[in-house]
Design a protein that fits this description.
6 helices, alpha+beta, four-stranded antiparallel beta sheet, 11 strands, five-stranded antiparallel beta sheet
Length: 199
Amino acid sequence: MIWRAEHKIYQLAVAKNIGFILPPTVVTNDTLAVQNFARNRDIIAKAVSSGYIDSPDGYRAMFTTALAPSDLKELEGLNLAPVIFQEKVVKLSDIRVTIIGGDIFVAEIMSQSHQSSQIDWRATEDPNIEHRPHKLPSEIEIQCLELVKRLGLEFGAIDLALTTKGQYRFFEINPNGEWLWLEDRLGFPIAEKIALWLS
């Protein structure tokens, strides 16, 4: 189940079917398709599968990246593998939803307060980036729980964006997402809930 749930294209299809709003998206290795998609919109790029690579400098993350107009003229190598391209979301903050069984813990990450974290909060240069507990609207909470259920999971870490218009946008779900920092920062009893589930 986890192997299937990790596939981002599959995740997007399931999330859309449930009713999540997704940013306009194309998955392609065609340069012209990307250039056409980027016409009259700002776009970002992200990996189709794993967001980590084994490089000569060690194992490192491939963060979501904003593409400038000049980048669209330098897409050599795109034909070797598809990439997810999405319309850039104008965010108020990032939302991390951690689900264990029927328990849900929601953190709001104030990513827009630092330039380094505005596109991908994991890239922040500020280790003390502000986190807050967050209350989701009931319909979004139900959609998060349904997504985990449909993917056949008991645990999931869902990444959403809260837009400047107060709307939620779905980015992805990680079936093995990190959570310990949320327990440290916000006191969420995630370890306790995992222990109870395992017992």
